[in-house]
Amino acid sequence: MNIILLGPPGAGKGTQAARLVAERQMVQLSTGDMLRAAVKAGTPVGLQAKAVMEAGELVSDAIVSALIGERLDQADSAGGAIFDGYPRTEAQAHALDLLLSERARALDFVVELQVDEAALIERVVGRYTCAKCGEGYHDRFKLPMVAGVCDVCGSTEFKRRPDDNAETVRTRMAEYRAKTAPILPLYEARGLVRRVDGMADMDAVGAAISGILEA
Ligand code: ADP
Ligand code: ADP
Ligand code: ZN
User: Which residue among 88, 138, 164 has the greatest number of ligand 2 atoms within 8 angstroms of its CB, and so is best to mutate?
Assistant: First the structure.
């Protein structure tokens, strides 16, 4: 099973991808995570991507599609891939078709998380993660059970993304509207799109996605 999670910044793609990984033999392929790792490691890709990401603009199609291709060749993705934050442009959608067909794989579903844009700023600005294990949290919607201690690994260090500020989120939202939302009709024409109410609570969104995958 290969699925795309599609939705604007803060829609819940990463949150839902992590749930699917925990429940099924699937891997999360997040271009955002791959790019942040490249920036941290100071690779040529990271050096090129850093300023673009900080501005909330899109990194080049060639770079992100190459990252996805490399990941698809690693054995762990054979059980199924969850594309999180990719594709984000029409060119990337075409590149993904090619990457999958070259590997005799196909897309099963495109799950669109439908959200109210006004609520997304708060979601993104309140987002943080455990610095050690990456578990996701939110200032208001998902606090650790013990204040300041990660539920999963016990670490007391957390981090926030430099691009998770209200101003950059607006640019990212505009990028989504201009370049990413227009790829939905391509998948609609192929009968792949399933819509989920992304404003429901995290468990309800997860249950809705599970229902789609089991249909
Ligand atoms: P995306 O990967 O689409 O950018 P995330 O999954 O990182 O979004 O979610 C953004 C923030 O909103 C996170 O802090 C997360 O804990 C929180 N969040 C995710 N889903 C929900 C939900 N259904 N209701 C409330 N908050 C949510
Ligand atoms: P979010 O889920 O909050 O939208 P991501 O972690 O997916 O954020 O992406 C963070 C940033 O990384 C984007 O704003 C963009 O600069 C870059 N990026 C991630 N994925 C892609 C992609 N598929 N194409 C172009 N740029 C990307
Ligand atoms: Zn942790």
Answer: 88
